[in-house]
Amino acid sequence: AICILSALGSVREAVLVQPSGVILTHKGPLEIIRLSGSILTSNDHRSLRITLASVNSFVISGIIAGPLIAETPVQ
Asked: Model-level pTM?
């Protein structure tokens, strides 16, 4: 199991589940504002929630549903 305490960096692409259940792919660069959650098994991606901001300050949030591709080194 892994527990995420914090993250810093930006992503190029994020696949997120919206509160309505719709899965959307967002393209960046998108700056990580918040990343939280845990991974209990290799197939358990739905427990990670992320909030991202675009260069024009548009905020995107959701549960990670697929690849989260880094734009810069992520710590």
From this structure: 0.81
